[in-house]
Amino acid sequence: MVTITHFKNQCYALGNKQSNLNINSFNMWGRNGVFCCFPILCLWACLNAVPVAVDKTKVSPPAEELEPPKSVDTGLHYDRYLREVVDFLEKDPHFRDKLHNTDMEDIKVGKLAKELDFVSHHVRTKLDELKRQEVNRLRTLIKVKQDLDGERGMTVDHQGLLKQFEHLNHMNPHTFEVDDLDRLIKSATNDLENFDKDQHEEFKKYEMMKEHERRERLKTLDEEARKKEEEHYEEMKKKHAEHPKINHPGSQDQLKEVWEETDGLDPSDFNTKTFFSLHDTNGDGYFDEQELEALFTKELEKIYDPTHEEDDMVEMEEERLRMREHVMNEVDTNKDRLVSLDEFMAATNKKDFVQQDGWETLEQNPIYTEEELREFEEHLIGEEQDLNQKTNDLVRQREELERQQQELSAQKIQLQQAVEHMERLKSQKTEPPVQAKVNAVPSAMEILPGDSQSLAQGHQQDFPAHS
């Protein structure tokens, strides 16, 4: 039976390894990538180890246990919810006791979830609260998705969104039930176990894109430059392939090399049990995936050097993954993604542990076929055409907006001119009346002979007689 400390350390270690991957993650609204490769059960199991009889008078104070970092993320979009549920279930004595007597397959098929009915009221209340918080988080995500797609004029696929949330029963948003725990276990198990497959697919796309870009670049060169580029490419391939023989992962030769060059021990003293203890770095009695991959570092250094142009570090991580998968398939007999001491010792007693051929590296195993590359390029062309169409649509929309803006500007100018004209007319209507005509009477110097009578009459009109 595997301890809970081991399982948690496994997830924490794999969470840390996530940050070293050089391949882009999946979008949670689309392909929903997963960044940890161990089942949900790596979060659970018994707390106590088998007691060992010791002389208490000679025992030194136990060294302080180093707690794994609590911020490590499994990579699942419901990671926080998952960890909080597990943490509270561990606090219930009945549930924790059931973990001691339930094997992994029973947990996967939902037998453990039924024990939820027997946990304490306090734990159930807290689980209800955690579920309500998770439902609110999902509702917020859906609302944001709807707003974003609405702005782009896209139709929201509600069913597609709900498929992302199979880790809980969203039809009952208030209480955490047996069905919720069963869904959580199955969803996390499936997501985490698909990690390797997803990584292989992403790596294949990475390699095809690299080759596609190389071929497209060649099309832009003249004949002489293209010939030089091809010669350089072949030279780099040949140089990368010229490396020492790679020992078969998990073979005696491979482990002995680690024993001698990494551990600095005499190869004639090689002992498999001692080797296991040396490289079980957390001392839990198992090789987890990170501890296993660490054993392949010497082999990978023979092939890849970050300072060499011909060596691709993304390919190195894929090679490491292939080596680990191979050893797990050969050694992990109970398929719990762990190598126990018993499994390790059984593997080292096999005939092929000593008699193993060399390891075929990536360049000896084509990642994709020409047909797959052609389909990939056709897909890229389709995506490019869609982008061009959307770009043209946006250009037309922009031109239409600019035209409308010009029309509005012209209308604004006409309106301003009309307002100014109305203001001028209004000001003319409100000017003061013309001054009295006396101001326009000619001076005495300008009166001609014979006009005295007219003048007198004018004076009579202008100046009324006094009474």
UniProtKB/TrEMBL annotation:
<dbReference type="Pfam" id="PF13499">
    <property type="entry name" value="EF-hand_7"/>
</dbReference>
<keyword id="KW-0479">Metal-binding</keyword>
<dbReference type="GO" id="GO:0005793">
    <property type="term" value="C:endoplasmic reticulum-Golgi intermediate compartment"/>
</dbReference>
<feature type="coiled-coil region">
    <location>
        <begin position="178"/>
        <end position="231"/>
    </location>
</feature>
<dbReference type="Pfam" id="PF25434">
    <property type="entry name" value="NUCB1_N"/>
</dbReference>
<keyword id="KW-0106">Calcium</keyword>
<keyword id="KW-0597">Phosphoprotein</keyword>
<keyword id="KW-0333">Golgi apparatus</keyword>
<dbReference type="InterPro" id="IPR011992">
    <property type="entry name" value="EF-hand-dom_pair"/>
</dbReference>
<dbReference type="GO" id="GO:0070062">
    <property type="term" value="C:extracellular exosome"/>
</dbReference>
<feature type="coiled-coil region">
    <location>
        <begin position="373"/>
        <end position="428"/>
    </location>
</feature>
<dbReference type="GO" id="GO:0005085">
    <property type="term" value="F:guanyl-nucleotide exchange factor activity"/>
</dbReference>
<protein>
    <submittedName>
        <fullName>Nucleobindin 2b</fullName>
    </submittedName>
</protein>
<dbReference type="GO" id="GO:0016020">
    <property type="term" value="C:membrane"/>
</dbReference>
<feature type="domain" description="EF-hand">
    <location>
        <begin position="267"/>
        <end position="302"/>
    </location>
</feature>
<keyword id="KW-0732">Signal</keyword>
<feature type="region of interest" description="Disordered">
    <location>
        <begin position="447"/>
        <end position="467"/>
    </location>
</feature>
<keyword id="KW-0963">Cytoplasm</keyword>
<keyword id="KW-0677">Repeat</keyword>
<dbReference type="GO" id="GO:0005509">
    <property type="term" value="F:calcium ion binding"/>
</dbReference>
<dbReference type="GO" id="GO:0005794">
    <property type="term" value="C:Golgi apparatus"/>
</dbReference>
<dbReference type="GO" id="GO:0003677">
    <property type="term" value="F:DNA binding"/>
</dbReference>
<dbReference type="InterPro" id="IPR040250">
    <property type="entry name" value="Nucleobindin"/>
</dbReference>
<dbReference type="InterPro" id="IPR057576">
    <property type="entry name" value="NUCB1_N"/>
</dbReference>
<feature type="compositionally biased region" description="Polar residues">
    <location>
        <begin position="451"/>
        <end position="460"/>
    </location>
</feature>
<keyword id="KW-0472">Membrane</keyword>
<keyword id="KW-0964">Secreted</keyword>
<keyword id="KW-0175">Coiled coil</keyword>
<keyword id="KW-0344">Guanine-nucleotide releasing factor</keyword>
<keyword id="KW-0238">DNA-binding</keyword>
<dbReference type="InterPro" id="IPR002048">
    <property type="entry name" value="EF_hand_dom"/>
</dbReference>
<dbReference type="InterPro" id="IPR018247">
    <property type="entry name" value="EF_Hand_1_Ca_BS"/>
</dbReference>
<comment type="similarity">
    <text>Belongs to the nucleobindin family.</text>
</comment>
